[in-house]
């Protein structure tokens, strides 16, 4: 399995998670949505987060992961085709990590 395949699988999983969370009823504390530029400014200014990954989900929804090594915070967002950005998940203790998954290529053989 190539790194590209692994990253595609990772973003597919993130997209599925994001879409599942977006489908929750509002009473279940669904995601907060707003103007994309305002949310990006807040992630950068208050948390020091920068974009670490991006992928295209179903229905032309853009899934992004933002994180900060300095603050340890991370956020997953989904930008809808109408331009609104929704916060899907966030947390602490972020670690940048790119595992060497080359051993998985033996499994495909």
Q: How would you sum up this structure in a few lines?
A:
33% of the residues lie in helices and 28% in strands. It is α+β, with helices and mostly antiparallel strands and 109 residues long.
Could you please describe the fold and organization of this structure?
By secondary structure, this protein is of the alpha+beta class. Strands 1-5-4-3-2 form a 5-stranded antiparallel sheet, with helices on both faces. The longest helix is centred in the first third of the chain and has 20 residues.
- Low-pLDDT residue spans: 21-29
Assign a percent range to the helix content. 25-40%
Mind summarizing the main beta sheet?
5 strands, antiparallel
User: Number of DSSP helices?
Assistant: 3
Secondary-structure element string: HEHEEEEH
Shape: flat
Give the averaged pLDDT, no decimals.
79
Distance between the termini: 10 Å
Q: How many individual β-strands?
A: 5
How are the strands of the largest sheet arranged?
A: 1-5-4-3-2
Question: What percentage of the residues does DSSP assign to strands (E)?
Answer: 25-35%
Which value, in Å, is the CA radius of gyration? 15 Å
Class based on secondary structure composition and strand pairing: alpha+beta
């Amino acid at each position: 399995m190539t790194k590209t395949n692994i990253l595609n699988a990772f973003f597919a999983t993130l997209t599925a998670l994001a879409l599942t969370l977006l489908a929750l009823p509002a009473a279940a504390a669904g995601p907060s949505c707003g103007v994309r530029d305002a949310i990006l400014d807040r992630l950068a200014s208050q948390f020091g987060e920068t974009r670490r990954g991006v992928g295209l989900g179903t229905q032309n929804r853009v899934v992004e992961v933002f994180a900060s090594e300095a603050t340890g915070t991370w956020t997953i967002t989904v930008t809808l085709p109408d331009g609104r950005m929704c916060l899907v998940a966030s947390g602490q203790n972020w670690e940048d990590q790119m595992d060497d998954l080359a051993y998985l290529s033996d499994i495909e053989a």
